[in-house]
Amino acid sequence: MNIESFKNVLVLAPHTDDGEFGCGGTMARLIENGVTVTYAAFSTAAKSVPEGFPKDVLKHEVRAATGVLGIPPEDLKVYDFEVRTFPTVRQDILEEMIVLQRDLDPDCVLLPALIDLHQDHKTIAEEGLRAFKRTTVLAYEIPWNNLNFSQQAYVRLEERHIEKKVKALQCYASQGHRNYLNEDYIRNVALTRGINISCGYAEVFEVYRWIL
């Protein structure tokens, strides 16, 4: 069974750009092969936007980034939960996820890892497992937040998939000050994961639930 066996994939991103970092190459591969990918970002992190940028800049950047990957505008969902407060509004987040489950009925959900150090990421992982408990669920890697990530499932990627991931992340001009946005870093993580399984590039996932 390969990743394209899924036909309707939902990506849960705590903040705009998290999904691209964690599984941008995988999304590009899925879309290339005709799989429907819906991207749900739960915060545009207005309080974290650097000085000199409009507070709603990430709403525009996520549209551009997901467009690079091939996600149509109607398959992008952007919510306005306040950054770094997700544990206090977890029931509201869960209710939005339940709506997504009902409306989309995805056969695979990609979300952050339960061991992610960021409180917002961890909340999305926990509530995602509750909302999609009868669905295949895989956790994507955010290396700087994951101290002991289990590399259980690998998705092989080609240069064109990594190129789209890089170009998508370059849409986030407001986040250019972050060192993990560096193209060499993005490529080298994918290269390292690829070396692990003797291919050019890869992204890695933890398996929480696999339904065949």
Description:
By secondary structure, the chain is α/β, with parallel strands linked by helices. It has one domain: Rossmann fold (3-Layer(aba) Sandwich), CATH 3.40.50. 39% of the residues lie in helices and 18% in strands. The chain has a 7-stranded mixed β-sheet, with helices on both faces.
SSE order and pairing:
Blueprint lengths: L7 E6 L4 H15 L3 E6 L15 H13 L6 E3 L11 H15 L3 E4 L7 H13 L4 E5 L12 E5 L1 H12 L12 H14 L4 E9 L3
Parallel strand pairs: 1-2, 1-4, 2-3, 4-5
Antiparallel strand pairs: 5-7, 6-7
Helix pairs in contact: 1-5, 2-5, 3-4
Poorly predicted sequence stretches spanning 5 or more consecutive residues: none
Q: How many structurally independent domains?
A: 1
Specify the biggest β-sheet: 7 strands, mixed
| Alpha carbon gap, first and last residue | 9 Å
Order of helices and strands: EHEHEHEHEEHHE
Strand content: 15-25%
Number of H- or I-type helical stretches? 6
The geometry reads as globular
What is the strand tally? 7
Jot down its keywords.
6 helices, 7 strands, 7-stranded mixed β-sheet, single chain, globular
In short:
With 212 residues, the chain is of the alpha/beta class. It has helices at 18-32, 57-69, 90-104, 119-131, 159-170, 183-196, and strands at 8-13, 36-41, 76-78, 108-111, 136-140, 153-157, 201-209.
